[in-house]
Structures are given as C-alpha cells and as structure tokens.
Write a structure and sequence with these properties.
The termini are far apart. The strands form 4 sheets. The chain has a 7-stranded parallel sheet, sandwiched between helices. A 7-stranded mixed sheet has the order 10-11-12-7-15-16-18, covered by helices on one side. A two-stranded antiparallel ribbon has the order 8-9. The chain is globular and about 55 Å long. A hairpin with a 2-residue loop joins strand 15 and strand 16. By secondary structure, it is an alpha/beta fold. The protein has 2 domains: 169 residues, 3-Layer(aba) Sandwich (Rossmann fold), CATH 3.40.50; 183 residues, Dihydrodipicolinate Reductase, domain 2. 33% of the residues lie in helices and 29% in strands.
Length: 374
C-alpha cells in the first residue's frame, strides 16, 4: 500500500487525510496538538506532532513516504515544496504561496521530482477546466469567479475563514495580475468590484485577486481574469482596514515596543472569523470560457455550488479543495501524470482521461458542476 504524508491537519488537511485513508496508508503531521486530536477517531490515520519549520525537520519526516501532500499556510508553502524536492519526494501542494513556483522547476527536474502546485478549487479546478478546453478549442476569454462563505451573514464581517486566515489576508493585499487584450495588467487587490447573480444564493460581490497564478505563463490566451466572491459591501470595509494600515507588515512603535499591525489584526480577526461548531459554509465557483471550436463561436460555463456536509462535518471548502487534490493524487499514484518539474493543474487535464477522472472523482463525493455550452 502506498504511503502518503499529509502536512497540515487543518480543515482541508483533515478532509484530505480522511478521504485518502480509505485506500492508502496515511500519516498526518501538524504542530498543533488540538488539530491532530480531531483525527484520533480515525484509527487508520497515523499522526505526528512536530514543527516542520525547524531546520531539516521536513526532510526527516517525509523520507519514508511515497507522496507528500502540502496543506500548510501560504507563507510556508514555497519552502515546503522546495524542501520536499531537495528530499527527492514528489509533492502535491494546495497552499497559496506568493512566490513564483517555476523558480523551483529546474531543481525539481534535477531531483526527478513532480511538484504539482495549486491543486485546490480556485486556483486549481479552474486551471483544470481551462487546461482541458484549451486543448480542444481556440480560447479568447477565460473568467473565473470563486469563493467560500458562511450561509449565516453575521455582522460585522459576514465572513468566516474556511481556509488559512493568513491566506485570506493575502487576497486583500497581494497585487492582482490578469490578461487584457494580450497584455499583462496589474491592479491592486479589491479593485474593479462588480455584483453578479449566483444561484441559489443571489447577489455576490467579486473583485480582482491574484488567482490566475501559473496560467499567466502557461496559457497564451488574450483575456484572462480571476475574481474572489464575498457578500456585497465587503470591499468597502476591507479597504478601510487596509488603507488605514491594519494589514501592514511594517512595524510601528507602540508604548516603546515595535509591533507589526498585521500581527495585531490577525489576533483580533481570526477568532471572529472562526467557524463555530456545526456552522455551515458553501463554495461557489463559476468558470466562463469563450472562443472558437472548428471555426464556430463557443461559450462554455461551469457552475459549482457545494455546501457543508452535515454527516461528516466537513466544510464545503475542505470538500471542494481536498477532493480536487485527492483526485490528482490518485492520478499521480496510478502513473497518469508523468511530467517532471513544476506541474500546475492545467498540464494534467490536457488528457481527457485525466479530466474525466477528476470530474467523476468529485461527483462520487457529491461535488458536481452544472455545465452549459452555447
């Protein structure tokens, strides 16, 4: 039986471990004892309490495993991928790290490693859909809208962090890149907000985030953009916090002490953003692709609406992100992904068999798309 190590036992890491443990020998690693305790009821999942940020610890931990899955916050993601490559271990990573993953491409090839990055829902599933259709048609436009939200709209934020809270703040501060008429455009995060209708929820607000990621380099498509979804009104109050300096990493002097504003902000916001027990969330994803197929205009729309699983107490974001990651993990273990080096999701779905497998893997777990073609 193949041995898989899952780095991180948060909401998504737990869902990944539980799902994979049905067919593989799974060990989950985390620095947080409480997170690992939540896996104790799963007798087929081993747990390891350790701090992977310590020098040499990651390479020691992963040495006996066939596959590494990274489910740690974005600020750790790049180093985790790098250290896995140095350990000559194949890795699938879901973190939203800010660095360019292709900086590790040569290193991964040197170590004969496949490093699949951004293997989640957005980025992730959007890349997979685009990769498939880019091999079938001449695409002129790609739009991706995605977000995870609580059903209960609670003042003042009407939001709960359904993945790493630090990565949520990155969405509010990291400059957003997109393609417009063949040119790379860079805008501040939260820019160009718009309101669209999404069934069955209603109106949601979308704004620019840096979710295109690898697509900017791998896809020669003139118009591509990715936007994050929240309840209407979010942009206004998040901009107030950002422009006032609450997200700044530059220390300020407070009562003789140097304090980073973002550290204070996270201490205040994260408890407020934490999902309460049995609080339900949902994930919305809309991908719109336009272009020509055999010289004929074509528009393809994928709509996903997924919700919290009461039976397994699994958040929707964990389901949609985790099961996409696990579908890719199964493909890799089955020898269907041979690419060496940095491998973004859009490379995998060029093969129709892989694309169909991922969609079916999600459907089997209750995560399905409404697909229309015009």
């Amino acid at each position: 039986m193949k041995k898989i190590v899952v780095l991180g036992a948060g909401l998504v890491g737990k869902a990944i471990a539980v799902d994979l443990s049905k067919h593989f020998d799974v060990t989950t690693v985390d620095v947080n004892h409480t997170s690992l305790e939540k896996l104790k009821s799963y007798s087929n999942i081993k747990t390891l309490l350790t701090d992977l940020s310590e020098e040499g610890e990651l390479q020691r931990v992963v040495k006996d495993f066939d596959l590494v899955i990274g489910c740690l916050p974005g600020y750790m993601g790049y180093k985790i991928v790098q250290q896995s490559i140095l350990a000559s271990k194949n890795i699938i990573d879901i973190s939203f790290f800010r660095e360019d993953p292709f900086e590790l491409d040569e290193l991964a090839k040197k170590h004969n490693v496949t490093a699949i990055i951004d293997a989640g829902v957005a980025p992730g599933m959007g890349n997979i859909i685009l990769g498939y259709y880019n091999a079938q048609m001449e695409i002129s436009s790609y739009k991706c809208y995605g977000g995870g939200l609580p059903f209960k709209r609670e003042w003042p934020f009407e939001y709960k962090a359904v993945f790493s809270p630090m990565d949520v703040l990155e969405e509010y501060t990291r400059p957003a890149r997109y393609m417009l008429n063949g040119e790379l455009v860079v805008r501040e995060a939260l820019s160009e907000a718009e309101i669209n209708h999404f069934e069955p929820i209603g109106s949601l607000e979308a704004w620019n985030t840096d979710g295109l990621r690898t697509l900017i380099d791998t896809m020669k498509i003139p118009n591509m953009i990715e936007k994050t979804l929240r309840y209407p009104g979010t942009v206004k109050y998040i901009k107030v916090l950002r422009e006032t300096g609450f997200f700044s990493e530059n220390p300020v002097l407070v009562n003789g002490e140097q304090v980073r504003p973002i550290d204070v902000t996270t201490k205040l916001l994260f408890p407020v953003w934490e999902l309460k027990k049995d609080e339900e969330d949902y994930t919305m994803l809309r991908v719109i692709i336009k272009g020509k197929e055999d010289g004929v205009d074509k528009k393809v729309t994928y709509n996903l609406f997924d919700r919290y699983d009461k039976e397994t107490e699994t958040t929707s974001m964990a389901r949609t992100t985790g099961y996409t990651c696990n579908a890719i993990a199964n493909l890799f273990i089955n020898g269907e992904i041979e690419h060496k080096g940095i491998c973004p999701p859009e490379y995998i779905s060029v093969d129709k068999k892989n694309f169909d497998f991922i969609l079916n893997y999600l459907i089997e777990r209750g995560v399905g798309f409404d697909i229309t073609e015009e």
